[in-house]
Write a structure and sequence with these properties.
Mean pLDDT: 91
Helix content: 55-70%
Distance between the termini: 83 Å
Structural class: mainly alpha
Strand content: under 5%
Order of helices and strands: HHHHHHH
Number of strands: 0
Shape: globular
Oligomer: single chain
Radius of gyration: 18 Å
Number of domains: 1
Largest sheet: none
């Protein structure tokens, strides 16, 4: 039996669940690779499983590096509006065998996560728009 390529398998994922385009899946795969490199470095060359919350952090960092202030717009174009959407993408890939998981992993690991506005827009605001207003000093 011939082994399916990543692209062929990804096409099967998208045929089964068309909520997210091919580029969204490729981005998540690249963000996972990015996150694994960070974990490898932090563990002095020893690889371990990446949790959903760690992947969300890696997705945020990788997205900001790739898309800058356009990140949230890119994600919206892909139908990604909250962290749970990343969980759907990951588990679509898990279910077809493109990614692995442990017994502890679930879609719920991506619940909550972070607010997209805070994660993807605020880093580009001028500091005067981020800092809380100063309280007046009593004379």
């Amino acid at each position: 039996m011939q082994e399916l390529t990543f692209e062929t398998t990804l096409a099967l994922v998208i045929a089964k669940d068309s909520r997210y385009p091919r580029d969204a899946y490729l981005f998540v795969k690249d963000a996972l690779d990015h996150t694994q490199k960070i974990v490898l470095k932090e563990n002095k060359g020893e690889m371990r499983h990446v949790t959903g919350q760690e992947l969300l952090g890696g997705i945020r960092d990788y997205a900001l590096a790739q898309f800058g202030p356009m990140t949230q717009m890119v994600f919206e174009e892909w139908g990604i509006k909250r962290c749970e959407d990343f969980g759907e993408i990951v588990f679509n890939m898990v279910e077809i065998g493109l990614l692995g998981k442990t017994e502890k992993d679930s879609r719920d690991d991506f619940g909550g996560g972070y607010d997209f506005h805070d994660a993807f827009r605020k880093p580009f605001f001028p500091s005067s728009k981020i800092a809380p207003p100063e309280k007046p000093v009593a004379s």
